[in-house]
Amino acid sequence: MDLGLAGRRALVCGASRGMGRGIAARLHEEGAAVVLVARSADGLAAVVQDLSALRDAPVAWVAADLTTEAGRHAAFEACPAPDILVNNGGGLSPGHYTEWDRAAWQAAFDLMLLPAVEMIRLQAPGMAERGYGRIINILSRSVKSPHAPLGLSTAVRTGVAAYCASMARELIGHGVTINNILPGIIDSDAQHAHIASLAAASGRDVADIRAARAAANPAGRFGSVEEISAAVAYFASALAGFVTNQNLLVDGGDFAGTF
């Protein structure tokens, strides 16, 4: 199936590992001209090498911290006119509401909300002027199904979804869509770190926690980075021009609700 991605410019944030790396690889394979953003220059260089083996085409990158204004502007300068913007970044370790003081809330906003909001503010007007754009945010299933230990990150990620919902109807008239991917338990670097933190807090074995989490999912397994990347590729494609303001769960059926 031709997704119409050949020649499209894609700015992928958080692209040095995990889901961001997989998304960049899928868009590159589909023919997009990919620009990678992450803090680690070494990590990005490794991704470029891997992507070059998939398809003989140049891959641009910029090492930038998107939690800073300077980093966001560096990303904008590296790709000032993308057709596709993928907002993806780090998360937080589990905690308890009694631990989340003002400083914790501010740090969470700086890490997970402001980078996405500011990248959209920088890029969406140009997309609208050019009459084409695809904005995809990688959030979490907790946006639809909150989990107490992830309450801080859930609140902030839900803020991203609400912010995008507020502008989706305006932008669709200019050919720009905004959609969110809500991953469940995905076999990624972030999931590995999350399981490690659970093991450290509980004293349980990492392998036991991993097996229990897989067994608790209706699919009986973890999702793959490739399954997330496929969903992103669809939202980024020419086929999804009439789809906006959607929150797509990719969670193996873990969310039991209808809506």
From TrEMBL:
InterPro entries registered for this protein in UniProt: NAD(P)-bd_dom_sf, SDR, SDR_fam
Domain of life: Bacteria
Membership in a protein family: Belongs to the short-chain dehydrogenases/reductases (SDR) family.
Designated name of the protein: Short-chain dehydrogenase/reductase SDR
Species, as recorded: Tanticharoenia sakaeratensis NBRC 103193
